[in-house]
Amino acid sequence: MALLNVLPYDKAFYEEHLRDFLPSTFIDCHTHIWLDAQNHFCEDSANRSCAWPNMVAKDNSVEDLNETNRLLFPDNKVISVLYGQPMVTIDLKKNNAYVAQSAEKYNFPALYISHPSQSAESVERAVLANPCFKGLKVYLQFAPSYIPGNEIRIYDFLPKEHLALADKHGWVVQIHIARPRRLADPVNYVQLLEIEENYPNIKLIVAHLGRAYSNEDLGDALDYLKNSQRTIWDFTANTNQFVMEKVLDLYGPDRFIYGTDFPIFRMKARRTVENGFYINEIPAGSLGDVSSDPHMREIPSPEADKITFFIYEEILSCKNACNTLGLSKEDVQKIFYQNSADIFGI
Length: 346
Ligand SMILES: [Zn+2]
Fold this sequence. Notes:
Blueprint: H1 8-18, E1 25-32, H2 62-72, E2 77-83, H3 92-106, E3 110-113, H4 120-128, E4 133-137, H5 154-157, H6 160-169, E5 172-175, H7 186-198, E6 203-206, H8 208-211, H9 221-224, E7 232-234, H10 241-251, E8 256-257, E9 270-274, E10 277-283, E11 296-299, H11 310-324, H12 329-344
Parallel strand pairs: 1-2, 3-4, 4-5, 5-6, 6-7, 7-8, 10-11
Antiparallel strand pairs: 9-10
Bound molecules: zinc ion.
Zinc ion (ZN) binds at residues 30, 32, 261.
């Protein structure tokens, strides 16, 4: 069975909107690979993230990732930046080893998933042991379990010792911020600027545009961050054209990069926002029982037939934002290739 069901509607969508926009080779700065065998039972599996992303795939081998790109972007060559699956239910040691081995096999760059309880020495040893690792992927789920999910701050999952280490080596650090108000939460944006100022050699990437999926999620953040000099923004898993325009307009195309969050964004979906709350509309029955997740809404046929891949929607939003701002072909080349090539040393 094919990994993805690419229908004539999807092919036409790619032809019409994406093929001429995308560079022939591009870099995906944000992918997750892991094997089911790297899952382990964990007492501490209280989930502090949304439920729906976990429903897309039980695992994602590097071969599945490559196949996803081959099916979705038949005319392009894609270089993926690999990392593991940052879940408390994953054996991080095995998963990081698999990422390193896969990166070596396909000549892809990678990030090492660090755990806040690790000593700086242990993180340093692990990253330096494999030249494919360009830095750290950190995640809110690894914050100590006594901290309520809504109260997690960046330093709870990215300790200052790890920041100092990343600064010393000039590593990439990719952050997925926590807290219900997302980027609009002053705790997040104050700490982001603090990290940029205190650790100037880090290549700091804010994942998902700070999880600003609705216009409201921006709050006052960009005003506070208007003098930020280096921080890079990945628009992975974000389809909000307005938010993209705001970030692009403020920092220009040099600090904006493409990513997919595969396997998640290989699902068929489109996003709508109601009262500041995002809702993923998916074809009815395509993902199992989603009734308990308020972010999900099933759309019946025939309307469902017009829902294409989530990643296509993300790229189209970026294209529309680039057009609105009058960006050039060279700017698009930076966003989809050159910026990440420089950041990850490709
Ligand atoms: Zn991700």
